[in-house]
Structures are given as structure tokens and as C-alpha cells.
Amino acid sequence: xxxxxxxxxxxxxxxxIQKLLKKFNATPVIRGLAHITGxxxxxxxxxxxxxxxxxxxxxxxxxxxxxxxxxxxNGGVPEDELYQVFNMGIGMVLxxxxxxxxEVARCIRGQKQKAWLIGQVVKGRGVVRVV
Length: 131
Prior knowledge:
By secondary structure, this protein is an alpha+beta fold. The protein has helices spanning 2-6, 14-24, 40-44, 66-75, 79-85, 101-110; strands at residues 30-35, 53-57, 92-96, 119-123, 128-130. The strands form 2 sheets. The protein has a 3-stranded mixed β-sheet. The chain has a two-stranded antiparallel ribbon with strand order 1-3. The two termini are 30 Å apart.
């Protein structure tokens, strides 16, 4: 039910993040962390970006939970607003060195968590574009 979906237990990322930092940050592989809460991608990711970088988040690169389609359809919420207000199923974003992204994702999956490569960092002015 919608109620069951909304009452699901929140994932605690702390233990996973600690393992990742221990494994990968002898040299700085993990460059930024953004917990995607209220404010979605658009408001949360820029907090960890240098002002000369943008992030491009690519729709369709992860499984969006069906609850968000229900919110869009039944609430008349425009798609752009969904990505600004909600996490669309992505609770935590890690910004990692490009050449280590696949390895970090495999490590996360090895810890029984879902992981996708959902975008990239590009030159810019400190904003997120969802495309």
C-alpha cells in the first residue's frame, strides 16, 4: 500500500560510508557525499560541489520506485519538481574519481546495497542538471 511504502525503514548509510572511506580514501577516491533528502538532487548535491563544477544526473540510469509515479500522476506534480523535492529512490550520492566509479559501485553492491552510476561531474558553475 501507499502507507506501507511511506513507512519503510530509512536506510542507515553510516556503516557503508565508513567502510568505503576506509577502503578507498588512502588516496582521495571519494570526493563528495550528498544525502538526498528534502531538496532532492538540485538542492543537495551542489552543497558538496566546487563552484566550477556541475553535476549531470541522467534519468533512467536507476530504478525509480513506483511511489513516485503515483505522486506524479495523482498529485499532478511535474517531473522536474519530483527531482527537486524527492530523492526518486537515490538516498545517497557519492562523487568519486571517474576511474574508480565501477570499483566503488561493485564494493557497494558487495555490501548488499544498490548502486548505480547515475551521472558525471563536468565543468560548470556549481549546479545540478537532471537530464
